[in-house]
UniProtKB/TrEMBL annotation:
The chain crosses the membrane at residues 7-25. The lineage of its organism: Eukaryota, Metazoa, Chordata, Craniata, Vertebrata. PANTHER family: TESTIS-EXPRESSED PROTEIN 264. This is Testis-expressed sequence 264 protein-like protein. Gene3D superfamilies: Regulatory factor, effector binding domain.
Length: 158
């Protein structure tokens, strides 16, 4: 077998292995558990941007929010059921948790988010929620979340 064919075979094999590792690391095999009960967070102050359109476009906002506050927890609020609402009409808010509980949000951090076009809102504490989690490790994690988590939540609620 010529050297170039061997090189192509080895390269293809390595790329295939890297792709499988990337997809697995992104969350393809992550266990998804849906629960009800007390929320994992209390009252929060949230810096967010509101958008309307397909939920698959929310990754940009997660990245933008993460770039401003890389150590902060990210959160997404999705208002509509995409199975009942056309994708262009779906509404969502994405951003970062600036403070939790009785802690005050850092004023400089609030200014950085507001300068970047984010709004700031405080959610009151709630007592009962439906919750699940899914890792955000790569941009593919967002797509896997939509593909794997939302149907699981839907089945749980219905």
């Amino acid at each position: 077998m010529p050297d170039w064919v061997s090189l192509c075979v080895v390269t293809s094999l390595l790329l295939s292995i890297l792709t499988v590792v990337y997809v697995l690391y992104s969350g393809l095999r992550t266990d998804i558990t849906v629960l009800t009960g007390s929320p994992p967070i209390r009252k929060i102050t949230f810096a967010y941007k509101f958008k309307q359109g397909p939920y698959r476009n929310c990754g940009q906002l997660f990245q933008e929010s993460h770039s401003i506050g890389p150590t902060l927890s990210l959160i997404g609020v999705f208002y509509d059921n995409p199975n009942k609402m056309s994708a262009p009409q779906c509404r969502y808010a994405v951003g970062s948790i600036l403070s939790e509980g009785e802690n005050e949000a850092d004023e400089e951090l609030i200014r950085r988010y507001e300068t970047s076009g984010f709004n700031v809102f405080s959610f009151p504490e709630v007592t009962h929620v439906v919750i699940t989690s899914f890792p955000y490790r790569t941009i593919l994690s967002v797509l896997l979340r939509v593909w794997r988590v939302y149907p699981r939540i839907q089945r749980y609620i219905v």
